[in-house]
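Marked as duplicate of an earlier ticket. Keeping the data here for the record.
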Amino acid sequence: MTTRLHALGSNSSGQLGVGHYEDVDIPTPCRFIRTQSLYDTTASAKTHLEKPDGLGSPVRKIVAGGNHTIVLCDNGAVYAAGNREALGECVDLASHPSGSDELSSQDLTPYFKRVMWWEDTQLLDTFVDVSATWSASLFVAAPQTQDGYVVRLGRIFVCGKGEKGELGLGKHTVETAKPRQVAVFGAKHYPAYMSRDLERVPLIPGILAGIWSSVAYTLTCSTDEVHVFGWGNCRK
């Protein structure tokens, strides 16, 4: 099954993902970059560039920042287009060892590109939720399990800019190109009011965001208990 997206409106930063920077007043097909899986990092790996109009998975969620757009698919793949400051290095495929001159030599901003990056030795390329502030992007990585046990909790990552605390990285951090983890989610030490019993540990976080603020929630493993956290501008 092929899912096709169409977009219209303001497009000065390429945020519509239609392959150019012109505003459009009629629904226009979005364009998606296809690349070879970054799991293959051998010297023989060839990263290639295609620009199809459709996706191979249904779309679960679309979020828009000030000048960037993020699309989450049912299979966990995420694509993003638009302002480079808001997307940081999460779509900088050419920085990976398997990148090619074909990718790095072209302006890919006005196309939807697959969101993926290396976190230590782990490639993060599938997510369970996404959101966006005016100039930042947030991605939720799913918990990792092994032999029926949770070996890593769900994590929230953020990249981009935010001068009102909306990044969730502390008052002294207002910009990050590399996606960074919001500490309270998946941290080794939980707030005192959270149980350390594994069945009550918050495993599956979700995220919502406004122009200058973010709100996240966590769902526990075996109960309906929900914890809600907020950061950013709270004056209005």
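See parent ticket for discussion. Confidence is low (pLDDT under 50) at residues 37-47, 94-100, 186-202.
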